[in-house]
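Schema walk-through. Below, the input block comes first and the output block second. Nothing else is stored per chain. Lengths vary across the set, and this one has 424 residues.
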Amino acid sequence: MPDTLDWLCSGHLLEGKRILLLVSGSIAVYKALDLVRVFVKMGAQVRVVMSAHACQFVNPLSFEALSHCSVLTSQSERWNLQEGMCANHITYATWADLVVVAPASANTLAKLAHGLADNVLCATFLASSAPKILAPSMNTQMLEARATQENLARLQAWGCEIVEARVDLLACNTTGKGAMAEILEIVSASARTLMRTPFWVSKEVVITGGGSIERIDAVRYVSNHSSGLQASSLALALWLKGARVFLISSAFPLSLPMDIGCICVKSAQDYLNALQTKQNLEFPPFLFMLAAISDYKPTHPHVGKLKKQDLGVHWALECMQNVDILRAVQGFYKIAFKAEEGGTHLSSALKNAQTLLEDVENGGKGCQIVCLNTLEQNPFGALENQITFLSRLACRRSARMDKFNLSLEILDFVQENYLEQKQF
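--- output ---
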């Protein structure tokens, strides 16, 4: 399975975006180098401002080598405006689409919260009207001090987003909260700020993924080859677009931002129980039903382990039909995912997929959209896939692409279909 950061970098999601990274004095300064590297791989232009204390931890040359731009420090600030983009706090501040302060020390947070501009980092922060993200990094007692907490609350009230520190072994050789957030959390928060779209912002979305696990005995089960990668990719894409996301799955192949609600389940009944807590008839959430639910489950699950000497040479496992989750749940805007034989069976596959669009009373599942997988594409466990989108108004086939970029295409189709339906 791919690393989540590599997955994000593959799509050049931040192509043309301008990110200004403000680096204050902290042992975590070296991690800010990884932030620059990832932002650049995602297609962003990056410029860096370093405080004097930050320069004591890492030489500015390291940031210049990764960003390919001059690092702004108190020593490098210049005002020859005829040179165009010369390094000073005004040109850098007005250039940025996003300002990220990482690491943000206790001293820097205090200055920012009180509008001080006594160094080049604080002056740049104050001069920029771009959205701002801060990632604190300090000793636990300093973080928990009333002054620091009030400073964070004040900055948050002004519209700054705080990416919370995490618990780890700190530079003072104690374990506690204060370590700078993981690179994934800071990168994801940054990408979300730059990628969120009005349609998806604050919309509630539920996604199911993985394959159901139906118990035979204490060690055996009935399941399938679903990896959960498309569902995790879709959850990540929706969260980056601004949605409130809940992922219900038996498999989580990607590390996801902490703000995504993840619910681990096994059986079809587990999936159904979790979904029923999210139903809302008045304001239906979007439901992306990607989970591969077993059509059948063992009729009589065994309490212990079945012994082969007791089963004999041939074992006839009695099964019964499983619950039909898509038919059972109401109070959702339902987007179904269906796997069918393709090739010479494509017309039959399309017909079967279209039946899911019919109302439950007419033998359908009440879905608004169906995403059809054909098995010759080998979708299960693969990094790439190709999907046919169907709705009552349109039918479209995607190109074959990686599952993250395919997720973005799925969201475009859903948005278009939703808005078109609202016109009728």
